[in-house]
């Protein structure tokens, strides 16, 4: 099923620095939408971000807008990638 037909509102966020916090990820999305939840994927020692996270957006329409407006933008010198989680 294509992302545009799915009800999934979880987004993949890549290109994040290793010291990424939930607050940092939420700050990327806050100008566009409200984040329902954030899950940062960390290394085996659970101290550093592996460069990506997952965010859940409250509605499909807001998720579409977030992908359109945030994917490929630069945040604090990092090029952020946003797409639908698979």
What this model shows, in words?
The strands form 2 sheets. Strands 2-3-1-6 form a 4-stranded antiparallel β-sheet. It has helices at 22-29, 60-70, and strands at 10-14, 35-42, 49-57, 74-75, 78-79, 81-84. Strand 2 and strand 3 (49-57) form a beta hairpin. It has a single domain, classed as 2-Layer Sandwich (Alpha-Beta Plaits). It contains 2 helices and 6 strands; from the N terminus they run βαββαβββ. The protein has 86 residues and is of the alpha+beta class. The protein is 22% helix and 35% strand.
> What is the name of the CATH class?
Alpha Beta
- Describe the largest sheet: 4 strands, antiparallel
**So, the CATH homologous superfamily?**
RRM (RNA recognition motif) domain
Radius of gyration: 12 Å
How many helical stretches?
2
Secondary-structure element string? EHEEHEEE
Low-confidence stretches: 1-6
Which key terms come to mind for this protein?
2 helices; 35% strand; alpha+beta; Alpha-Beta Plaits; disordered N terminus; 86 residues; globular
What is the fold's blueprint, element by element?
Blueprint: E1 10-14, H1 22-29, E2 35-42, E3 49-57, H2 60-70, E4 74-75, E5 78-79, E6 81-84
Antiparallel strand pairs: 1-3, 1-6, 2-3, 4-5
């Amino acid at each position: 099923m294509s992302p545009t037909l799915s009800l999934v509102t979880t987004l993949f966020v890549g290109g994040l620095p290793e010291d990424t916090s939930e607050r940092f990820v939420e700050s990327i999305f806050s100008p566009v939408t409200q984040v329902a939840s954030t899950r940062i994927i960390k290394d085996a020692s659970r101290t550093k971000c592996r460069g990506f996270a997952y965010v859940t957006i409250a509605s499909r329409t807001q998720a579409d807008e977030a992908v359109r407006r945030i994917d490929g933008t630069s945040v604090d010198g990092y090029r952020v990638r946003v797409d639908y989680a698979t």
